[in-house]
Every structure is written in C-alpha cells, then in structure tokens.
Amino acid sequence: MIEIFIDDKSKPIFASMTLDYKNIKLHYTVSGKGDTVVLLHGFLETIEMWKDLEPEFARTHQVICIDLLGHGQTESLGYVHTMEDMADAVLTVIKHLKIKRAKVVGHSMGGYVALALAEQQPQLFEGLCLMNSTFEADSKERKRLRTRANDMAKTNFDNLVRMSFANLFAPESRVSFKTEYEWALDIALKTSLQGYMAANEGMKLRSNRFEIFKSLKAHKLIIIGKKDALINGEQLLSKLENTDIDYAELSEGHMSHIENKSELTYFLLHFIEK
C-alpha cells in the first residue's frame, strides 16, 4: 500500500507505505530529498513520535520513519522480538529503498535496534545518535522487572502501561506537558499485548554494545536527559572519556522530543547536517 501526499506544486513530499515482510505488514514513511536520515522510535511508541521533528529534517534530507515490529501499523512476528529481529526489519526497508548510507537516530529501544543494525551493517552508518538510550545491556534487576511486567501484562495491561509510561517523564513534565503526555499515552495504550511482550523479551535479551558503538566509524552522539529515570546518564558519561563519542545533556526526562523539544531539535539538526 502506498499513500502519497503532494504539495501545491504537485510534487510528492510524503509517502506512507507498507512492505510484505515474513508474512506480516511492515509500515514506514518517506519524506523529503537529499542524504538519508532514518528515525527509529522507542518502546510503546510509533513513527508518530517524530511528527514535529520529521518536517524539520525533511527540508534538507530524505527522512525514513519505520514502525518497529509490534508497534504502530507494523504487525508482530511472534512473542519475542529481539533487537536483531527488529534490525533485520529496518534493513529490509533500507534495502528496498536502495539506501547505501544513512544517519540513524534511535529513541530508547530504537537506539538498541540501531546498535544491533550497526553490528550487522557498520558500513551503512554515516552517523548514529542514541537519543535517551544506552549501549549497555539490562541489569539483572531490570531483567527481573521486565519478566514481572510481562506476567502482569496478561491480566492488567492498561494499568501496567499507564504506570510504566509515567516513569518516562520528569514528574513536573506530566503537568507542564499534560496535553502531549496524554497524546503519547494514548498511542502507548494502542500497542498490542503481543507487541508489548515481544519487545520486552527482546530488550531483556540484548547484549552490551559499547565496543560496537565506540568502534563505529561514523559521527556518534548520545542525548541524555538529566532527570531520565530509565537511563543512568552519569554512568554513560563516565565511559565516554577517551572516545570520539559526542554527547548533549538536556534538563528533563526520557521523552526529550516532548520535554526538551527546541533544544533537541537544535542538537539533532546539527547532528544530521555535520
């Protein structure tokens, strides 16, 4: 399926498409022209999270947004979606579009997927930005929490999503960005139970990819939220010494595209234009 929106000059500016992939539908969008930027959303998100950033980037670049397995309009493959599985789906879109080189921005889980892709296809990357994400594997405690969450999801899914989602924002952001918070929560609640459980299992299984990230011959950037309850920014920063990895610290939590939108836009525009 292809849905194309055109501007006043009758030139295509945005296309929403699906690919047949391993007997499921894989959804992605393409906009703009120029060098390629690939945007990968996080857990309980969809390509809709990029609705404000994508038009900014598309002024000068071709922008590819992909609904990851079990999220948005992309269906699930099973009850475990490893980061490698998701990276394979992303690579399918990239190959279909005949893209040879790209800058990739991954938010949270999207960063884990981007790192898995970088391990498989390092030559693809002109740049890699981990946005509110990490190269580290889950701790033992985090793995236990994911297992517990998947058990709870089977009987109390809505409440689980609401509780999990609250931790993504700095406490004051839930009030100051109330409309945006409720909009993003509504998207999260539309995630299927299968998509939730499969991604959670996949994140639990992921490996530490610090060496992959450090050795990648590309422009590298980490975006850190100082009040991020999920990502230990200080721990990440301590490992960046004597590397060529750039970083930017923002004032709020895990959802920088909402909580620090103007600052994030500045840093990401600099990243893709460098």
UniProtKB/TrEMBL annotation:
GO terms for molecular function: hydrolase activity. Keywords: Hydrolase. The keyword Hydrolase applies. It holds the Pfam family Abhydrolase_1. The keyword Cytoplasm does not apply. Coiled coil: none annotated. Residues 36-171 form the AB hydrolase-1 domain. InterPro entries: AB_hydrolase_1, AB_hydrolase_fold, AB_hydrolase_sf. This is Alpha/beta hydrolase. It comes from Winogradskyella aquimaris.
